[in-house]
Write a structure and sequence with these properties.
This protein has helices spanning 13-21, 34-39, 42-84, 113-125, 142-147, 150-153, and strands at 90-96, 99-105. By secondary structure, the protein is mainly alpha-helical. A hairpin with a 2-residue loop joins strand 1 (90-96) and strand 2 (99-105).
Amino acid sequence: MSTLTTTTSEASALEAAFQRSGISLPVPFMELSATIIRDLPISHVADLKCFEAAAKSELAALSNMIQTGLDMRYGEQAKAQLLAENKDTGTTHVVDGNFDVTVEVSKDVTWDQKALQAIWNRMVAAGQDPTEFITAKYNVSESRFKAWPEVFRQPFMAARTVKPKAAKFTLRKPSADEGAQ
């Protein structure tokens, strides 16, 4: 049984979902903090992680349904408005009752890297500066870098910066035959 309580007459959607999950915690959900989570029994933290994963999945599904519903409702009208302006991307507005629905149709542009390299080379050969038109980004594959002999890696070390990302935690209860590890 959940120990969650609400001071208002109606629980928030998040509180209600937490209550439905059956997780019993020693503190009300809305009073959780990083410090409290740090001090909870690991079984409660594992329950929270399970709840978090389920909630993310459900919210992602809800988000996709909302996006699809809005696209079904306003997509064609927005496309028509943009096409009337000889555009296939951009921002337009659809008025629906008291709402001004802003519809942004963004673009995803990709460039053929080999074709750009050929253009770069032609510009250099013609005495032009390709940096006025093309931005080149240098990168080294980390897996390849690690496989190189030290003599090859050394000149690159000054150009390499490693920044650790945030730690990720996975809680797993070992089966009885695995035992505690």
